[in-house]
Design goal:
By secondary structure, the chain is mainly α. It is built from eight helices and four strands. The protein is globular, with a radius of gyration of 19 Å. It binds flavin-adenine dinucleotide.
Length: 208
């Protein structure tokens, strides 16, 4: 998200709910009990209003431009080199086991990343394709690649947080490390960058 309208860096694409970060209101913990649902409703309303404002300001041209960008992103796509359900199972094998993903530890995170990164390299350049008989194949392949990308962001971020804070638990240190009292922003596809970002004083109270 790049602004209060829940816009993203892709013009015409807005994010809301679980698809958008809610750490500004929940900090390092989940907001079970109210925050998550409240965030989904509030951010959905902001994103909807932002999209409506964009459409109103640019008229049909703004919406056509957004759909052209999506279409352009799909040019040159060809099918996944591996069936989507196999890729989903391969990602699940790394992220489902609680010994990998509940209490995390650098050695296991690195081992998982090796196989996730290998899968990413092998699938580089491939993307969803559907057929008239199975148009849903494009969506399933796109979802499988998104799971792989997310798992790589997740474990790289986890490696950069060798402490226990909020929902993030590390075997190496059962307590928060005061030196790591910052947010981590993950970005990139082939090369992943994890950038620490300071929390403001106000947000700090929530992020503890
Ligand atoms: C077990 C559990 C307990 C929870 N308890 C609480 C709680 O006590 N309090 C609280 O505030 N929050 C709780 N949450 C979190 C809360 O449910 C979520 O934060 C909230 O539902 C997110 O809303 P959303 O609209 O962003 O996503 P979702 O509710 O996940 O909605 C996304 C929708 O998109 C659909 N979809 C996905 N892909 C496609 C596609 N390709 N095409 C079309 N549709 C698609 C999905 O089927 C789904 O209906 C809980 C979550 C879980 C899993």
């Amino acid at each position: 998200m790049i602004n209060g309208d829940c816009a993203t860096s892709v013009p015409g694409l807005f994010a809301a709910g679980d698809a958008a970060t809610r750490e500004e209101i929940c900090g390092g913990f989940t907001g079970g009990g109210s925050h998550n649902a409240a965030w989904a409703i509030a951010s959905g309303a902001w994103a909807g209003a932002g999209a409506a404002r964009l459409a109103k300001a640019g008229g049909p041209r703004a919406l056509r431009r957004a759909s052209e960008l999506v279409a352009a992103a799909q040019v040159g796509e060809h099918g996944l080199a591996q069936p989507a359900d196999e890729l989903v199972a391969a990602v699940q094998a790394e992220v489902f086991p609680t010994e990998n993903n509940w209490i995390r530890e650098a050695g296991r995170l690195n081992a998982s990343l090796q196989s996730l990164d290998r899968a990413w390299r092998e699938l580089a350049g491939s993307a969803p394709s559907g057929t008239p008989e199975d148009p849903g194949a494009r969506v399933r392949a796109r979802e499988a690649m998104a799971m792989l990308a997310t798992a790589r962001w997740m474990y790289r971020s986890a490696l950069a947080r060798p402490e226990t804070r909020g929902m993030a638990r590390r075997a190496e240190r059962a307590m928060p490390d005061p030196a790591l009292r910052h947010r981590l922003i993950a970005r990139g596809l082939d090369e992943i960058e994890i950038r620490p970002v300071a929390v403001s004083h106000d947000h700090g109270a929530l992020a503890a």
